[in-house]
Amino acid sequence: MALFGAGGSPAVCSSLYILDSNLKTLLMRDWRGDTNPSMVERFVSIVNNAESESELKPIIYDDEIQTSFTYIRHRDLYFLALTRTNANAVALLTFLHRLVDIFTHYFKELKEESIRDNFVIIYELLDEVMDNGYPQFTEAKILSEFITVGAHELQAPKAPMAVTNAVSWRSEGLRYQKNEVFLDVVESCNCVVNANGQIVNSEVNGALRMRTQLSGMPECKLGLNDKVMLQAQNKSTRGKSVELEDIKFHQCVRLARFESDRTISFIPPDGQFDLMNYRITTPVKPLIWVEAKVTRPSRSRVEYSVKLRTQFKSRLNATGIEVKLPVPGDATTPEVKAALGSVTYAPEQEAMLWKIKTVPGEKVVEMRAKFSLPSVSALEDDGPRQKKPPVMVKFEVPYFTVSGVQVRFLKVIEKSGYQALPWVRYITKAGTYEFRLDHQSS
Prior knowledge:
Layout: E1 15-19, E2 25-30, H1 37-49, E3 59-62, E4 67-74, E5 77-83, H2 89-107, H3 112-116, H4 119-129, E6 130-131, E7 134-135, H5 140-146, H6 161-164, E8 180-193, E9 199-213, E10 219-224, H7 227-232, E11 245-249, H8 255-261, E12 264-266, E13 271-280, E14 288-298, E15 301-310, E16 317-326, E17 332-338, E18 342-346, E19 351-360, E20 364-372, E21 391-398, E22 407-413, E23 421-435
Parallel strand pairs: 8-23
Antiparallel strand pairs: 1-2, 1-5, 3-4, 4-5, 6-7, 8-9, 9-13, 10-12, 10-22, 11-13, 14-15, 15-20, 16-19, 16-21, 17-20, 18-19, 21-23
Helix pairs in contact: 2-5
């Protein structure tokens, strides 16, 4: 299936060049016959004449020869696509990244030597992933079923159904004794609080992560408490419903069906994959709040008073909590007292690490610490104020999503009629979660 972008414009690639770190051609494949190697010399000239790499753009149009150069870099290799038509540049960039993924799948480590050592297999792959300049299926797992490494294996067996049936992400003939689907709803909370206790950034990034062990070619249907979906299906939106933003699906999802009635319908890949990613920018109450006061009772001493408050229901627990508090690089002789958990001084990180295995909701835990400072540190008060590192927090809250996203149903339908066991778990964890602080002296 060819790659298409906005407006239905196809990705058309006239030729592909793989260049080394010196911009010398290692390998080329011409599909349409309307380009020539001299055009690559113009691209090399553009790159060499650029004052810095940041000045270059991934898509360069040469008006004089009416040719577009689309390229990406992988380590010291350049993957360069030439086109003479009004092609979809984003789709071409996607194709080049997929090509890197395919070669990495085959050669494990993609570098100049692996290109030179595998010309035969690379040309076979290029003939399969591109037809007359139009990208075709680019799933490495499927390609490896009928293009295998090793001369004795390079016979062309029957093309798998995944190719002929346009389901490029799933192989035919899969069989499991026990058919199961595991779905993890994972949300990462990003929260930044300034020194005045004001939330300056708050968002939630979520993912539906699946692991499937299903026989045959199953059809899966998934329903969420998505507010728009419930309204589209004339179901009550009273109670818990959420508005998801920036939804991104795996290619297996039938987008037309989702756009019509918000049903998530798909034939899943085998194994692990992210079915859907989403973002929620509506501010949410931070699950864990940290108040850290830093005082200087004297020039040779610094004291910390830290409160950790869990701001979720008491029936839930936060686990794997780690609070990283910055301390001066020359601090010595720590004296620490924590109501819960353990505190270690990590001088190589210029920080204290306060670790707690588990804390229930609606709980306040305190920790105090004292450090000695060499007298020379007093000179810092007379110098310019430096930006101090923030307090960083890590945690997980199992059986919970901060956004309120819930799986309403997960159905598996397969023509053989087997029963599949769906397992759903929820977990919320810290993403970028930091509290900025300012030192106080007394």
